[in-house]
Amino acid sequence: xxxxARRIAARLDRLALDQLxxxxxxxxxxxxxLWAELQRAESAAGFWQDNALAMQRDxxxxxxxxxxxxxxxxxxxxxxxxxxxxxxxxxxETARVGAK
Length: 100
Description:
By secondary structure, this protein is mainly alpha-helical. The protein has 2 domains: 1-62; 65-100, no CATH class. The protein is 73% helix and 6% strand. It contains 2 helices and 2 strands; from the N terminus they run H-E-E-H. Strands 1-2 form a two-stranded antiparallel ribbon. Strand 1 and strand 2 (74-76) form a beta hairpin. The longest helix is centred in the first third of the chain and has 59 residues, at 3-61.
């Protein structure tokens, strides 16, 4: 390899290293930003879960049965066929499955 070729290779190596360092710094910043975003999202999810569970307990304490709709929404439900509540059905199913 000629001296000129070695100088060109060394210059290209320095440029590649500079580019690699810049990309590593960018990725570190993005990683930090994404971790902060994840922590905010987890905190918000925990808040809403706690809120929903508290409302569910309040409704159940007031004698309002809580259940899932066909599309997966949680809410107050009417009594099921036969006059039982969703909790009665759940308790019966739990006992039935546990008896097997």
